[in-house]
Amino acid sequence: AQTVTQSQPEMSVQEAETVTLSCTYDTSESDYYLFWYKQPPSRQMILVIRQEAYKQQNATENRFSVNFQKAAKSFSLKISDSQLGDAAMYFCAYRKPNAGGTSYGKLTFGQGTILTVHP
Amino acid sequence: DTGVSQDPRHKITKRGQNVTFRCDPISEHNRLYWYRQTLGQGPEFLTYFQNEAQLEKSRLLSDRFSAERPKGSFSTLEIQRTEQGDSAMYLCASSRRGYGAYEQYFGPGTRLTVT
């Protein structure tokens, strides 16, 4: 079974600084998808960034970028120029590809990292 | 574009009672997922529908839990004979069909408290 581990329960960053959130995962699959989701307090979860395992290039979305190390099964999220609105719980998630069989829809989440942004 | 909606947002019930939650996905999405999230933890998969067919159920989904998606539109999640351990946030998500890293859009959740 796939597992996702976020070893940092809490992180903090000063506004305008850069912070990196860590995620490792375990899978025997060669093709899969990885995601970072953001869950602000009392608000719904939204997608921050996604990465296809077959792509060597790291995904980037504005101030958010990932460092995807497939061999090491590591998928970290870097937030540049942190803003107060970035404060939230961040979840790393894994999904198998749509190659048939079971479990090709569900997301497996890590435990989450609470990010605090200080003004 | 209307997002995923869930009703009710909060539910307090006494142990042993039955509860039912509703999820309305984004209209063109044919895939619908239910997750459970306990405080300070990541969501855990419960079950998944493609149109009206329930394609997968987690072992977390005991026989007290049942989910339906009649006509492939909204979905309901029922918990019978609730227990205190059922207290959690129940999240619904939907996505379109297709290959690729398509996004699952999440609803605001239903917070269940069993007293």
Number of helices of chain A: 0
Strand content of chain B: over 45%
- Quaternary state of the chains: heterodimer
* Percent in helix of chain A: under 10%
Main beta sheet strand tally, sense and closure of chain A: 6 strands, mixed
Distance between the termini of chain B: 37 Å
What Rg of chain B do the Cα atoms give? 14 Å
Compressed to H and E, one letter per element, the order of chain B equals EEEEEEEEEEE
What is the 3D shape of chain A?
Answer: globular
Hey, which two chains have the biggest interface? A-B, 28 and 28 residues
Cα shape of chain B? globular
Give the gist of this structure.
The complex is a heterodimer of chains A (119) and B (115). By secondary structure, chain A is mostly beta strands.
Task: Give the topology.
The complex is a heterodimer of chains A (119) and B (115).
Chain A: E1 3-5, E2 10-14, E3 19-21, E4 24-26, E5 33-39, E6 46-52, E7 60-61, E8 64-69, E9 74-79, E10 88-95, E11 108-109, E12 113-118
Parallel strand pairs in A: 2-12
Antiparallel strand pairs in A: 1-4, 3-9, 5-6, 5-10, 7-8, 8-9, 10-11, 10-12
Chain B: E1 5-7, E2 10-13, E3 19-24, E4 31-37, E5 44-50, E6 53-57, E7 65-68, E8 75-79, E9 88-95, E10 105-106, E11 110-114
Parallel strand pairs in B: 2-11
Antiparallel strand pairs in B: 1-3, 3-8, 4-5, 4-9, 5-6, 7-8, 9-10, 9-11
